[in-house]
Design brief:
The protein is mainly α. The chain contains 11 helices and 4 strands; from the N terminus they run ααααββααββααααα. It has a two-stranded antiparallel sheet. Strands 3-4 form a two-stranded antiparallel sheet. Strand 3 and strand 4 form a beta hairpin. Helix 5 packs antiparallel against helix 6. The chain is rod-shaped. The relative contact order is 0.07.
Length: 409
Amino acid sequence: MTAALTREQAQAAVAAAVAQRDTIQANLLALDGRFGQRLLAGASLAGQTRKRWDAATAALTRLWEIFTAYAAVVDRAAETLAHARRPAPGLAEVTALLTGASVRLTPTASPAAQRDLTGTGEVALTLDAAVRDMKDAFAGVADVVAAAESVWNELADQLQDVADPLSEARRQTSGLADDPLNGALGVAEADLARLREVLNSDPLALYSQAPGHGGQVDTAALGRLREQAAAVASRAAELGRLRADADTRITVAATAVSAAQAAWQDAMTAREQATVKIAAVLPPVPDVAGLADRLAALDGLKAAGRWSRLSLELDVIERQTATATAHCRDAEKDAVALLDQRDELRGRLDAYRARAARLGAIEDTDLEAEYERARELLWTAPCDLPAAADAVTGYQQAVLALSGRERRS
């Protein structure tokens, strides 16, 4: 039998027990007040979260039962010590309360195979044993609450950060007949809804805990969803801008097609003139007829809300018109260059004819024959430019030879 505490020992032990009781009560109330505990208690849970929270709820209920019985013993010990008229019996009772199995708990339901036929099922604990049981139960409940809070704290705001651009993408895609984009948006929205459902009903499914290494929130699904949402939002914004700028882009495309058609007409005119006057094989002028057909189809795509296809068609038209216009302008320059070359040869022939006249060689039969040959080639359509160039060069050299003899004499 444990020896009775002295009054001083009893007073110190009771004061310590009251302080410990107050600390335990404060921590229990703080646990009840945590937002994680309130959310778990009020949510419709599923999966491993429901399993763990059911166990935690049972542990928490038992914890409060233990605390209630434990606090009653502490209160009784303090009251007994304060009102004891006879020191010896009072100190003995206080000693028994503080050190003995004084915390009596109601029996918990147990399988029939585990019951004692003659036992009442009542549990009696010392204050120290009650505190150890409460600590164990508190730690288990607090772990569940802390894990759920970690998941909610890390994922809730980030899910909203994903939801906002998806909502904006849905607004921007209203009326868009873009099956790939609508499909990708629908998938992202469904994945968001599923992740939110898991977050609300089974947050611990998103929490991994390795023995001895603490816990970690699993953000892999969130990361994939964030990438999906970013891609969808970017595409929706692009098509939204296209829809807003559609009329302007179509007008610009129409202007470009008109410029390509004008360049084609100029190239054809220059080519026709060159082929009549110059004997040369010219490369064909690029055909721009298909551009008008593509341009005409844009209004139908716009009316149908097929903005993605409209964007692709506009890109194609822009590339094709730029290429066709450049090639047509090059073809025009090539044709004009042939005529310019013939005209340059004519001018050079006339210049050397005048020089021959100043030298008094206009009556030179051989020189005149060379001149006539060159002149005939240059003024015959179509003109054989290589032959004409050779003839002009020959005449030029003959005149220069006469000029040299004149200076020497």
